[in-house]
């Protein structure tokens, strides 16, 4: 990212996290610019992070990478309100439901564009992001885009823009699924007699430990589950209950519903 100027149009939570993540990874504050209709957000970023602030067009003139971090319903207005002077400018969009075709229509048919789908754990540097680049994005620009989102977690490239809808269903919406399961476990634990604070601590640490173990182990999730599940034991009884309740089928149904909704939202924004 050295000698690269990055501009953020929109200074909400995700942009704030990316900016702070970049600074933590060694980016120079003077190489980061932010623009937003909310002057208070810009003042906070300027005072706490030392970055520059500007209007949208000035930012577009100066930045090598322009991150579009505005709400999808604002995207057309923002894109139509700027002109890209440099053919080498890279657009990185983190707006759900806004397609590359739409962005090219608003910004220019040969604009280099990367679509990203981050998730909320990026707010604490633990994000998971899917990326897709159009044909105008160079290898160097791909490295820039990946370095940008890797400042707040990990990222993976997907093979088609349609895969972004699946990423949305899996990791974009995914934290809420885990929160729901943790909520259900906590309700069950208190129903079975544990104090609420005890249940919460145990469940949070168990989720954290299971995730870290899965990341660090070379075993698959299925193998890790088998290693914990002793024949005839307590874990097996719980797993059998989940399986009898068709948990796998329910998860597939839920993720399919989320993916279909992502596709529907993109179609609606085209009309």
**What is the residue-averaged pLDDT?**
94
Low-confidence stretches: none
- How far the N terminus sits from the C terminus, by CA atoms, comes to 37 Å
Indicate the radius of gyration in whole angstroms: 21 Å
Q: Major sheet: size, sense and barrel closure? A: 8 strands, mixed
Strand arrangement across the biggest beta sheet: 3-2-1-4-5-6-7-8
At the fold tier of CATH, the topology name of the largest domain is Rossmann fold
CATH class of the largest domain: Alpha Beta
Number of domains: 2
What's the SSE pattern?
EHEHEHEHEHEEHEHHHHHH
**Can you count the helices?**
12
Q: Tell me, what's the shape? A: elongated
Number of strand elements: 8
Give a description of the structure.
This protein has 271 residues and is of the alpha/beta class. The protein has 2 domains: 6-164, Rossmann fold, CATH 3.40.50.720; 174-266, ProC C-terminal domain-like (ProC C-terminal domain-like fold), CATH 1.10.3730. 56% of the residues lie in helices and 13% in strands. It is built from 12 helices and 8 strands. Helix 4 (72-80) packs parallel to helix 5 and helix 8 (174-191) crosses helix 9. The longest helix is centred in the last third of the chain and has 24 residues, at 247-270. The protein is elongated. The protein starts with 5 loop residues before the first strand and ends with a helix.
